[in-house]
């Protein structure tokens, strides 16, 4: 299954808006990430890192070491302390296995990714691209998350 480019741009724009990013360059970085991802037949640590690097290309304030690499520092998201950096790679390995097994829904896999929070920044944008990729692999239309319903989206993670 393939998605119409206009629909994908709408998905991406809203995805970036959820993060408070209203920037054409950021949208185009995410489009490049999507074009790369849609050509993939399976996911790997390297693939996911590359998607995150593309998504964060426009972020000049993000240190180069934090683009495309799993985080090496502790982070908090929404008042929740994320797993220790040493656990990120093994947890991501578990996620990759879960994706291949196909037993969890794309939404459940997205929540799993976001709870790992493998990167310093770009997790939401990267995670939604991965969720859409999984949905398309399963013949499901990508989930549209309008910016105005981001609170409903954030409720997924509670």
Q: Can you describe this structure?
A:
The mean pLDDT is 95. A two-stranded antiparallel sheet has the order 1-2. The chain has a single domain (5-157), classed as Fic-like fold (Orthogonal Bundle). A hairpin with a 2-residue loop joins strand 1 (76-77) and strand 2. It contains 7 helices and 2 strands; from the N terminus they run H-H-H-E-E-H-H-H-H. The protein has helices spanning 5-18, 24-38, 45-55, 85-101, 106-116, 123-137, 150-154, and strands at 76-77, 80-81. The chain has 158 residues and is an all-alpha fold. The longest helix is centred in the middle third of the chain and has 17 residues, at 85-101.
Please name the defining characteristics of this protein:
mainly alpha, 2 strands, two-stranded antiparallel ribbon, 7 helices, single chain, 158 residues, Fic-like fold
What is this entry, summarized?
By secondary structure, the protein is mostly helical. Helix content is 56%, strand content 3%. The chain has seven helices and two strands.
DSSP strand count:
2
What's the CATH topology label?
Fic-like fold
Shape: globular
Rg, nearest Å: 14 Å
Low-confidence sequence ranges:
none
Spatial ordering of strands, largest sheet: 1-2
The biggest sheet, with number of strands, parallel, antiparallel or mixed sense and barrel status, is: 2 strands, antiparallel
Strand content range: under 5%
Q: How many domains comprise the coordinates? A: 1
CATH architectural name? Orthogonal Bundle
